[in-house]
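Fig. S4 source data, part A: sequence.
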Amino acid sequence: MVFVESSEKDYIELSENLKGVAMPFSPSTAHAGPLPLLDTEVLRTFVAIAERGSFTRAARQVSRTPSALSMQIKRLEETLGQRLFVREARQVRLTPEGEVLLGYARRLLKLNEEAVTRFLAPPVEGTVRFGTPDDQGSRILPEVLAQFARTHPAVQVDVVVGGSLAMQRRLEAGELDLVLMTAGTPGQTAAEGEVVHSEPLVWAGRDGGVAAWRSPLPVALASQGWPWRGRALSALDAIGRAYRIAYTSEHWAGQEAAMLADIAVAPFPMSLVKSPLRQLPREVGLPDLGDYHVVLVRREGAGEASEALAGQVIRAFRELRR
């Protein structure tokens, strides 16, 4: 080891030369004391701005003024030593560091909610019998069941997957407590259901495939009674497009298989169109199918456990939209 004696003058001269030079960041020296804690209300503000893309819209959501939100974000950026938003003329967008924080913030807020619910909410016990079509269950069910098991460990959830009309009949017979249904199903009478999700219904097929260009058009459809089926056939008839029903399935997975094999195209919810499938372009000349809606129907008097699960389902669809 070599020791170099230096005078105060040498130190001052060295300090002047290093001004403006970026020094490497060291986590071990960034904070002399304990690391700061992130305030949940500030994180809630941060998430609201990130999701709304605007300080003004986020301010309305959290019932604060835009200037108050701006001060909160300024302090958060100072605490973390990172710029979190890029402010543009009509909107704000996240920086790469902001995108990283958004994931942490959502998880922290969710964990905070679970902790508060665990200690402040009265214990709920019992069994909930939950019916869902397979297209809905595949998207939200894993997250909903995992979350519900953490917040309501004493509640047993029995899940039944099937068609909307079959779910409705079992609900009316008292065999189910809570049911997700696709609105517009022939024979549906559950008009009192709450709309929890809406999205476009689109024509889909294999990317680079040829099925969409064949005549007559080969179509993969769900079985009789599914609302997508009637809507698709009515739309094709309205424009005089020749078609043939090339594939019929009880579940959307069968339609997906036909599209992947490039033997047919199908009406499909936009959120389920994943590579190597794609939404068919306008030049194919297929009619617009509009939106489809998912409703949540509760059995009257189903109980507190059923209501708690219904709340989790609604929040899961809200997150899906985001």
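Fig. S4 source data, part B ends here. DSSP finds eleven helices and eleven strands in the chain.
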